[in-house]
């Protein structure tokens, strides 16, 4: 099977054909223009020579002589030779020739138009006479009193004109050949460059490649951002636009700054650094970004950024961690309850019934008091369940978690998902802070619905934060712990607060020496 022509090969052949046709057309046009110009020049020349002879007094005097040919023939031939014309005929008004390049024709009648000249004008015509086809002119000869006493015809044969053109043809042919060679060389260089850029692919192959690549780019469930060497965004697929919040009608062929990308994504693109599975916040989404430099044949082409939505996975992971923590807490409480039950049964067997009842009711009272406090203050069931679950986790880790008596939430002042994000991450951060601290290890939670905002304040007895740490606490990736995937919780809190136009702050807890994390969320109108 013969190999199909590449785009570069087809373009080269087409360019050579077009250039050849253009040069051939130009050469033919130039030849026709030169022929026309040569004819006009010949007409001007013979007209000038004829008028010069006709106005000469010697010509009029010779026409009145007994033998005009004896005087005019040598004069006409000398002038013809000097001017390069082909014939000079001086004749009587009745067409009788007195001069001619062929002496045997002297005395015969002149063939051609003379009526205009007899009327006092100038006749210019292309006529086939005794010497062949020629361009000729006929002018009158006037005596001193104004009478027309004769006519002068001067001509140049078309063969002479064509011979003059043929003498110019080698130069024209050389110029044509040079033009063709230069055009072919330019077309070859252009096709060579195009072959490198298209990798020798044919039109059908490039069309198929474009269709496949376009279908793949628009159907994959990963965001893709391609940036060229100049830092301009060359491509964003549909998923990339969705994850980064880029409108569908926004052009994706300019600087990244013009697309209004999320700050962390814009910083990563501008840095051009290579990274793998780096968390990036984009609005209320947590994206996992991987970026690398692309090269072809040793040349850097730019960078490719891939994005995966990690929000749902992180939420599921958080719920799994909560369930796992709650399960562990329930297991520990089951062990504790078994121990207390054995103790109560033993005390009953020993006859110390009152002490057994007091021990059993004290534990139930403490657990019920916390449940009543949380459920009574927080009418949002998901938030109440979250804090009860966190309380069990805190108890397992040896941390005392209490809900402030001033806590109060009626209904759903802000979307419950956002409220759970804020409260859950603040409490988790506080539990982490006091986990390695010395006793007492306490966390206090205040969630209060006010007229225009919801106040969330979490106080812990941990080691606290320095001013620099407090300033950076809500920045993505900041953490006092070590481990992959940390430093995201408080940044999510920041994202929620900024989306509502609220505020977030970290201040030292004067009474406990720990930290107070405060978030205010305006209630949507």
Set out the fold topology.
Blueprint: H1 7-55, H2 57-63, H3 68-83, E1 87-91, H4 115-118, E2 123-129, E3 132-142, E4 148-157, H5 158-198, H6 203-219, E5 223-228, E6 233-236, H7 238-244, H8 263-271, E7 275-282, E8 285-296, E9 299-309, H9 311-349, H10 353-377, H11 381-396, E10 400-403, H12 416-435, E11 442-449, E12 453-460, H13 467-472, H14 489-500, E13 503-508, E14 515-522
Parallel strand pairs: 10-11
Antiparallel strand pairs: 1-4, 2-3, 3-4, 5-6, 5-9, 7-8, 8-9, 11-12, 12-14, 13-14
Helix pairs in contact: 1-5, 9-10, 9-11, 10-11, 11-12, 12-14
Describe this structure as you would to a colleague.
This protein starts with 6 loop residues before the first helix and ends with a strand. By secondary structure, it is an alpha+beta fold. It has three domains: 158 residues, Beta-Lactamase (2-Layer Sandwich); 90 residues, Beta-Lactamase; 151 residues, Heat Shock Protein 90, CATH 3.30.565.10. α9 packs across α11, α10 crosses α11 and α11 runs parallel beside α12. The chain is 51% helix and 21% strand.
């Amino acid at each position: 099977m013969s190999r199909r022509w590449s785009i570069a090969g087809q373009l080269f052949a087409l360019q050579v054909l077009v250039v050849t046709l253009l040069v051939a057309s130009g050469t033919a046009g130039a030849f026709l223009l030169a022929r026309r110009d040569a004819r006009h020049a010949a007409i001007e020349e013979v007209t000038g020579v004829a008028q010069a002879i006709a106005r000469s007094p010697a010509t009029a005097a010779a026409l009145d002589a007994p033998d005009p040919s004896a005087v005019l023939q040598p004069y006409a031939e000398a002038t013809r030779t000097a001017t390069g014309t082909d014939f000079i005929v001086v004749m009587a008004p009745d067409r009788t020739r007195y001069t001619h390049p062929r002496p045997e024709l002297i005395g015969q009648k002149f063939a051609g138009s003379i009526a205009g000249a007899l009327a006092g004008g100038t006749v210019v015509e292309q006529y086939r006479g005794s010497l062949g086809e020629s361009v000729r002119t006929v002018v009158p000869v006037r005596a001193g009193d104004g009478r027309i006493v004769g006519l002068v015809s001067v001509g140049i044969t078309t063969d002479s004109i064509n011979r003059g053109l043929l003498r110019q043809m080698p130069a024209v042919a050389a110029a044509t050949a040079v033009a063709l060679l230069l055009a072919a060389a330019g077309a070859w260089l252009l096709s060579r460059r195009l072959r490198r850029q298209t990798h020798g692919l044919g039109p059908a192959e490039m069309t198929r490649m474009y269709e496949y690549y376009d279908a793949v780019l628009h159907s994959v469930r990963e965001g893709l951002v391609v940036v060229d060497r100049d830092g301009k965004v060359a491509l964003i697929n549909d998923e990339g636009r969705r994850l980064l919040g880029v409108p569908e009608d926004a052009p994706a062929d300019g600087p990244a700054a013009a697309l209004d990308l999320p700050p962390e994504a814009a910083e990563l693109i501008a840095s051009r650094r290579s990274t793998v599975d780096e968390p990036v916040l984009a609005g209320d989404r947590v994206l996992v970004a991987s970026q690398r430099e692309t090269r072809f044949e040793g040349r850097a082409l730019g960078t490719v950024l891939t994005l995966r939505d990690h929000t749902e996975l992180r939420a599921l992971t958080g719920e799994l961690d909560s369930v796992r923590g709650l399960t562990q807490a329930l297991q520990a409480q089951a062990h504790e309850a078994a121990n207390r039950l054995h103790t109560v049964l033993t005390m009953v067997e020993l006859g110390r019934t009152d002490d057994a009842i007091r021990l059993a009711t004290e534990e139930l009272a403490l657990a019920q008091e916390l449940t009543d406090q949380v459920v009574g203050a927080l009418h949002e069931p998901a938030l109440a369940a979250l804090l009860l679950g966190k309380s069990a986790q805190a108890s397992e880790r040896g941390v005392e978690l209490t809900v402030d008596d001033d806590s109060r939430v009626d209904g759903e002042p802000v979307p419950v998902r956002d409220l759970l994000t804020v409260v859950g991450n603040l409490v988790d951060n506080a539990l982490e802070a006091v986990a390695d601290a010395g006793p007492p290890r306490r966390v206090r939670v205040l969630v209060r619905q006010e007229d225009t905002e919801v106040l969330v304040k979490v106080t812990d007895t941990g080691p606290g934060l320095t001013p620099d740490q407090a300033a950076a606490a809500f920045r993505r990736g900041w953490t006092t712990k070590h481990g992959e995937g940390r430093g995201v919780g408080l940044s999510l809190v920041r994202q929620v607060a900024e989306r509502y136009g609220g505020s977030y702050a970290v201040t030292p807890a004067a009474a406990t020496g720990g930290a107070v994390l405060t978030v205010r969320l305006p209630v949507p109108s």
